[in-house]
Amino acid sequence: MLAGRPLSLPDSDAFQAPYAYANSPAMVRRFPYPFASDTYELGVHAEQHDGTGETEAFRALFDIDEHYHQELANRRDVLARDPLRLQVAPHMRQAGWDTLELVTTSLARDFPDRFELTRDGPRWTWRNHLLDAAWTFEFGSADSLGCDPFEFIAWQVQGDLVLLDQRDDNLWIDGGMLTQGIGWSLDFSLGMNWGEWHGPVATPRERAIVERGLHMAMALTVDNPIRRVTWSLQATPRLDRAMETLPEWLPEEAALQPRDFGRRLFLRTEFQQLHRLARSNAMLFCIRHYMISMEQLLLVPKWARRLHRVLATLDPGTERYRAMTNRQDVMDWLAPHDDGAPTTPGRGPD
Amino acid sequence: MAISTTSLSRPDYHALLWKTGSAHLLVCDETGRETIDRFLASAGERHVTVLVLASNPGKAPRNAASLHQFDRAFSDLVARADMGLQLYACGAPGFLGRVTRLAREAGLVSDNIQAELSGVPALAAQCAHCKTIHDPVSAEIIWCDGCSHWLIIRQHYSRRLGACQAVWIEPTDPDFLRLRGEAAP
């Protein structure tokens, strides 16, 4: 057992079949709904990640919610089956310390009742009350920490972290912990530059967005992170939809019947963030996921109404459109919940 | 949902062309030897170094090297070179993937690397699920003995692994029938 790995986690895994995932009513209200209007346009959709936003999930730099322990238990299980989901190139060690600093200081500031950081010169004490654990170490010394700094802190947040090195006028995937990826593989992508990584993105319009995203990312400065909220629909609350496990999760999609949409079809928000790291000048790419069942989406009538309209007007030229085989069924299911009333601007609930 | 098979990450192999540079490094494996010899004949006054990876070091010419020696010699040459070094590589896909990766690790930028494919136009592929490397692959659908799945080859290519990505496809998938021209056994 590595020093950074949490010990006290649930045995069960709510994000694997037979699935035991559900949101509390409070969790529904804080959901980062992805659509600001009734139509979804392809685009970079980047905005400042500055502590503001329509729901609570937008407001912390690294958001922590009621699924914390379950997500960490899922990560433990995915990594136990496939250790290649965690890889960091040796030259990214400093970026790992940058990440540890950014995450610990942010968590301690945004959730002071759950996390505490005490800094006495290079001697740091990090308390994670959610895990009932504390570590004292010398900042910059992996020996004193007992493990790699990136691994240490990536374990303690919800969502995946990926390290991008900036050189040769490009960004390179040189490390990460990816247990919640959708349709891609960290192991396969490791060492790729931005263009190669997005190689499967095919249409000219989408390529232009990829290119613009790269320039926006490379221009980022420290303490000015950006975020981008994207989305998908899926047949189970499975977090791990990496390319490695495709034979496990793809058949679940085909098996879903419209009569089960209420409980089993989920709108998934992929909440992406990019941070410039202070010492290494590398980038930290965070990918945090939130899921809400159709049944729970109905609790906020505006959100259900709007999803129906977004699907009806989705641009057929997008990858997302082509990947959705049951779009019409989902629209039919949502139609009775769209009374044609106008929706208020922005992503928040009414 | 469907997984797209096209990708722009597949390497850009093309016939070698002299580019402006302070020094020129030509590398090949046995399959790329003829091409490199022909190319070398047009070098003119350029400052050229040639490095050959021989499959049989005992019988190979003076500048040939075993794989390990090759890697070291190659990395040394690139690391010691001036900024203006141009690299020209010719060989099998695995060889090209290897030298471009080593070159980039030693600090050479993509603009200064050219690669020409020799021999059979087939790439290696890695099973995305059990990580078995299939080398070479010449069909678009293959059977993976490692995890007992049918796989479709995506054009998505990793220079680090020197392989395309191969992902699970169901024998009932329309693409399966189209690409194999027959039903699964």
What is the overall shape of chain B?
Answer: elongated
Number of strands of chain B: 10
Largest interface: A-B, 31 and 29 residues
- Which runs of chain A of at least 5 residues are low in confidence (pLDDT < 50)? none
Total beta-strand segments of chain A: 10
Overall average pLDDT of chain A: 93
SSE arrangement of chain B, N to C: EHEEHEHEEEEEEH
- How far is the N terminus from the C terminus of chain B? 25 Å
> So what's the overall shape of chain A?
globular
Enumerate how many helices of chain A there are, as a single number: 14
Mean pLDDT score of chain B: 84
Provide the helix percentage of chain A.
25-40%
Count the DSSP helices of chain B: 4
Strand order of the largest sheet of chain B: 3-2-1-4-5
Low-confidence stretches of chain B: none
> Mind summarizing the main beta sheet of chain A?
7 strands, antiparallel
Task: Please state the structural category of chain A.
Answer: alpha+beta
- Spatial order of strands in the largest sheet of chain A: 1-8-9-10-6-7-2
Structural description of this entry:
The complex is a heterodimer of chains A (350) and B (185). Chain A has helices spanning 25-29, 68-81, 93-110, 142-145, 149-154, 186-189, 194-197, 204-218, 246-255, 261-264, 294-297, 301-312, 319-323, 327-334; strands spanning 47-48, 86-88, 115-120, 123-128, 133-138, 160-167, 170-177, 226-234, 266-276, 283-293. Chain A is of the alpha+beta class and 350 residues long. A 7-stranded antiparallel beta sheet of chain A has the order 1-8-9-10-6-7-2. Chain B is of the alpha/beta class. Chain B is built from 4 helices and 10 strands. Chain B has helices spanning 33-40, 67-80, 93-105, 174-180, and strands at 23-29, 48-53, 64-65, 85-91, 113-117, 123-127, 133-137, 141-144, 149-158, 163-168. Chain B has a 5-stranded parallel beta sheet, sandwiched between helices. A 5-stranded mixed beta sheet of chain B has the order 7-6-10-9-8. In chain B, α2 packs across α3. Chains A and B meet through α6, α7, α9 and α13 of A and β9 and β10 of B.
